[in-house]
Design a protein that fits this description.
The complex is a heterodimer. By secondary structure, chain A is α/β, with parallel strands linked by helices. Chain A is built from 20 helices and 22 strands. In chain A, the strands form 5 sheets. A 7-stranded mixed sheet of chain A has the order 11-10-12-13-15-14-20, with helices on both faces. In chain A, strands 3-4-2-5-6-7 form a 6-stranded mixed sheet, sandwiched between helices. In chain A, strand 18 (520-527), helix 17 (531-543) and strand 19 (549-553) form a beta-alpha-beta unit. Chain B has a domain at 2-179: 3-Layer(aba) Sandwich (Rossmann fold). Chain B has helices at residues 2-6, 43-53, 65-71, 73-82, 127-133, 147-159, 181-184, 189-192, 244-250, 272-287, 292-297, and strands at residues 15-19, 34-37, 58-64, 87-92, 138-143, 164-169, 193-195, 210-215, 218-223, 259-266, 301-304. An 8-stranded mixed sheet of chain B has the order 2-1-3-4-6-5-10-7, with helices on both faces. Chain B has a two-stranded antiparallel ribbon with strand order 8-9. Chain B starts with a helix and ends with a strand. Classes of the chains: A alpha/beta, B alpha/beta. Chains A and B meet through helix 1, strand 9, helix 9, helix 11 and helix 12 of A and strand 2, helix 2, helix 4, helix 10 and helix 11 of B. Strand 17 (471-473) of chain A pairs parallel with strand 2 (34-37) of chain B, so a sheet runs across the interface.
């Protein structure tokens, strides 16, 4: 296959430099929009742009074709500048059918480009999408630059000599569309061509057809008069270093493998398939040569139970799920709290309650993971703030779990799990040393519930160690011996120990940083995946001369020990959350007197930067 | 159990007893080994994780008819079908004892308990049928009132590689006294129990005068004399790779038929933990032991200067 030689000589069109572009690919869930978006993202990475993505797909594997619930979309912002969000509104929408146009029209900037697949704007498709009038006629699209491309027809024409079934030809149209966008932004085709060759290696006729469709799209864009201008987005001035494209779940998987490796232990991952956590299991399963053992359990409870069993056995037990799975695991998490074993529970939050919106994002499990268990059951909670941050927080979760002999919740989000960004790879020498201590029998009798004076952790004695035979479990434990105890005073003592143990983690985590002035009128406090839009909002306002500060929490229990002091320095504190005010409630309780207010969004979509800037303007 | 363990060379720190909740679940406290008294029904899950990361230990799950067949039924089934290498002892007393006497999944229909004052209307479950349907590789039944039998079954369970499932008929003298008396009582047992011996006909009766044969797919009792031609009789084959025969045995219930005790099924196939470990070892052989540099830097990177 010859790389790019088949591309025709370029027509003379003007080339314009652009700084940041937001593109939204939208189509039926069978149209390959996620794959198309991924390919555009990979190419942005290869070309050195900064980028951030927002995959947004339906929970149904295949909702009825052409309907609104079946629309799958993928938004990417790529830039020559450093960016933190996938962009609010798109500069370009590629709508593969009338339903995709209908669902996504509100996400396009006024004056933006809209490509539509003209072939399918017929009566039947319009009706399925609920368009009473053909949007291509009349004024619905008058604020946009509409480019009608008979995508299906052009793809069929480009592939007329290829030995493919009609349905297979139709499936190549996403590459035709990608070809158009590649031309528009002066992208290299090389990465995608290589990817197609590798992906479909077993079916050369598919390789040829997809590459032909890609190039036909590119050529079409080059010669069509509808596209007079080509845009160039230069490479971004990222911090020097080595980078790779990473999604949150990939970084989570790599982070836990790294942590286990640093601790010289087996990573045992027990999980039951659930959106949006499943891809962590998919990522981990091939890492067998790292000694990773994955276990696809019969249910959520078995997944956490097995992880606890692995921890009892002296290895790193991790289980991953989403909100509904946390409900099922609660009793077992409490067992790990009582047995005081290290355990990591990943919660990739999704829209709730109940089954909710499985493929969409939310931050409404914070109070559930903190308090959703019987009895006094304090637990450590950490939260990554971007896809790449999952790596570091995974290592942190393992460090805390082993050092304090406690379960740790790793609170991720759908939007972090699936979104991609460039990851500046860490220097291996700078990764922390993780050391697990396991006692051996000495002269003194062994007490399974004797505590380390500093951390209050109990010893992690592994079955098979001679002389340390002991029993643990969920019944109330006597101090030191761990024997079953129904003594009330002892119970209070043990409850206090476990609470104090979690509190002491605060001495062992970084102090809360503030971005911007350390005092002033307004601090925007966030946690998890709201980092990007808050950062961008604060930066935009600063550029306009409005001074606002940002603090973003990676540690939700315990809070960094200086947090109260940080908050005190500001007249007002704004907490934007994708819930009804859960961190808000915790902050009000922990730091009474703080003048704190919330910005709540429970639409299962991330914040737009504008929503935050508007709220800040309202407050100052 | 302690007597059984003493017959093996394995030191005491290598034994782990994992239990759930219920009368059976206090068991780990009576042993001087490692123990985990976990939560209701979930002991097999903990044993699974432990086994996956440690191949040296002798792991025993102690469960009951409520813990194992009701709240934890799912885990029981899946541990057995995975053929993961640990032993499950299911102590069946046909009652919820710890919660002070409600009917259990193995209580017979009509049983009057605190929660079924007019008689239970739940059809009971047959533990060994579940084990066979789940294709467990070692399946046995024993009883508390003949300790020597119990000991020999435990011994064989321990020697078996893969999952071992043992149902133990246990009397609850507080809440369900003499539940098994019609079968296992001293006066009745010779005529109402049949002891399974591999390769031998299923002979029972005080004077060994009765045997079992198949009539179609049903069992029936026929007279037996020592030395008679066994070709029409059911001859016990615990190694039958097909589960059908073992299933037929589980259908022999009081009062129509004598109840079988001993090893119903004993076959070998690769265990889950073995296969998991061999995938790890194969991957290491093929790709080398994973190192961090490859993990983090190994895929499609670019450099910014």
């Amino acid at each position: 296959m010859s790389g790019l030689t088949e591309i025709k000589t370029k027509t003379k069109k003007s080339v314009v430099a652009a700084s940041s572009i937001t593109i939204r690919f939208a189509g039926d869930s069978g149209d390959g929009m996620q794959l198309t978006g991924d390919q555009f993202t990979d190419t942005a990475a290869v070309m050195g742009n900064d980028f951030s993505t927002l995959p947004d797909f339906p929970a149904e594997i295949r909702a009825p074709a052409g309907t609104l619930p079946g629309v799958s979309s993928f938004q990417i912002q790529f830039s020559k500048d450093i960016i933190f969000t996938p962009g609010d509104l798109s500069d370009v929408l590629i709508a593969m059918n009338p339903a995709a146009l209908k669902v996504n029209l509100e996400n396009v900037k006024k004056g933006g480009l809209i490509f539509i697949n003209e072939t399918v704007f017929d009566e039947a498709h319009l009706k399925k999408a609920g368009w009473k009038q053909n949007p291509l006629e009349g004024g619905v699209l008058k604020d946009f630059q509409l480019i009608k491309v008979p995508l299906s027809a052009l793809t069929a024409n480009a592939l007329k000599d290829h030995p493919l079934k009609l349905s297979e030809v139709e499936r190549c149209k996403n590459f035709f569309a990608l070809g158009i966008v590649f031309w528009l932004y002066d992208r290299t085709l090389e990465h995608t061509v290589n990817w197609i060759q590798k992906r479909f290696a077993k079916r050369p006729e598919i390789v040829n057809a997809n590459i032909a469709a890609l190039k036909a799209g590119y050529n079409y864009a080059d010669i069509t008069e509808a596209l007079p201008v080509q845009f160039q987005v230069r490479e971004a001035k990222l911090e020097p270093g080595t980078y790779r494209k990473i999604t949150g779940n990939e970084a989570t998987a790599i982070g836990f493998v790294t942590a286990a490796h640093l601790a010289n232990k087996t990573l045992f991952y027990g999980s039951y398939p659930i959106t949006p956590a499943s891809s962590i299991l998919h990522e981990l399963a091939p890492y067998k040569n790292y000694g990773v053992k994955t276990f696809q359990a019969e249910d959520e409870i078995a997944a956490v139970g097995a992880a606890i069993g692995a921890s009892f056995g002296g290895q790193i037990g991790v289980t991953g799920t989403s909100g509904p799975g946390i409900c099922l695991k609660s009793e077992a998490i409490n067992l790990a709290i009582m047995a005081e074993l290290p355990l990591i529970v990943i919660d990739a939050q999704r829209g709730g309650p109940s089954t909710g919106m499985p493929t969409k994002t939310e931050q409404a499990d914070l109070l559930q993971v903190l308090f959703g268990r019987n009895g006094e059951s304090p637990i450590a909670v950490v939260a990554p703030k971007t896809p790449s941050d999952c790596f570091q927080m995974a290592v942190e979760a393992v460090r805390i779990a082993m050092k304090y002999m406690t379960p740790v919740i790793f609170l991720s989000e759908g939007n972090i799990a699936n979104a991609a960004e460039p990851w500046k790879l860490p220097e291996l020498e700078q990764l922390p040393k993780l050391e697990a201590k396991h006692p051996v029998a000495g002269k003194d009798p062994f007490y399974p519930y004797a505590r380390d004076q500093k951390t209050l952790a109990r010893p992690w004695a592994i079955p098979g160690t001679p002389g340390l035979e002991h029993r643990i479990g969920g019944l109330a434990k006597a101090d030191l011996t761990g024997n079953v105890s129904y003594d009330g005073e002892n119970n209070q003592k043990m409850v206090n120990y476990r609470a104090e143990k979690i509190r002491r983690i605060a001495d062992d985590i970084p102090e809360q940083e503030v971005l911007g002035p350390k005092s002033g009128k307004l601090l925007v406090l966030g946690w998890g995946g709201t980092f990007g839009p808050i950062f961008q909002a604060v930066a935009d306002l600063k550029a306009q001369g409005t001074q606002v500060s940002q603090a973003h929490l990676n540690y939700l229990n315990p809070f960094p020990k200086n947090l109260g002091n940080v908050l005190k320095q500001f007249e007002k504190v704004l907490i934007p959350e994708l819930n009804s005010g859960q961190l808000l409630m915790l902050i009000r309780n922990a730091f009474p007197g703080t003048n704190v207010m919330g910005l709540h969004k429970i639409q299962c979509q991330p914040f737009k930067v504008e929503e935050i800037t508007n709220k800040i303007r309202e407050l100052i | 159990m302690q007597r059984t363990l003493s017959k093996f060379d394995l030191p005491k720190e290598k034994y782990v007893f994992v239990s759930g909740i219920g009368c059976s679940s206090r068991f780990p406290y009576y042993m001087n080994n490692y123990g985990f008294h976990s939560i209701h029904g979930r002991a097999p899950t903990i044993a699974t994780g432990l086994r996956c990361v440690n191949s040296d230990l002798s792991i025993w799950v102690i469960t009951g008819d409520g813990d194992g067949l009701s709240i934890g039924g799912n885990h029981l089934i899946h541990s057995m079908r995975r053929n993961i290498n640990f032993n499950i002892l299911l102590v069946n007393n046909r009652i919820y004892g710890l919660t002070k006497g409600q009917y259990s999944p193995t209580s017979p229909i009509g049983q009057v308990t605190k929660s079924s004052p007019l008689g239970s209307i739940d059809y009971p479950i047959n533990a060994l049928c579940i084990a066979i349907a789940s294709e467990a590789t070692f399946i046995a039944r024993t009883l508390d009132s003949i300790p020597a039998h119990m000991g020999s079954v435990f011994e064989r369970a321990m020697k078996h590689k893969g999952i071992s499932f043992v149902e133990i008929y246990q009397n609850c003298n507080i809440f369900n006294d003499k539940a098994f008396e019609p079968v296992t009582g001293r006066d009745n047992r010779d005529d109402r129990m049949v002891m399974l011996e591999h390769g031998k006909p299923l002979v029972f009766g005080k004077s060994k005068d009765k045997a079992i044969r198949l009539n179609g797919l049903k069992t029936e009792v026929v007279p037996y004399q020592e030395g008679m031609d066994a070709k029409d009789l059911l001859v016990h084959n615990e190694n039958d790779p097909e589960p059908n025969y073992a299933y037929i045995l589980t259908q022999m219930e009081h009062p129509e038929m004598p109840v079988p005790f001993g090893v119903f099924r004993n076959i070998t196939k690769p265990t889950y933990d073995e296969m998991l470990e061999s995938q790890v070892q194969d991957a290491i052989k093929k790709r080398g032991k994973g190192d961090l540099k490859e993990l983090i830097y190994g895929r499609d990177t670019w450099t910014v200067k």
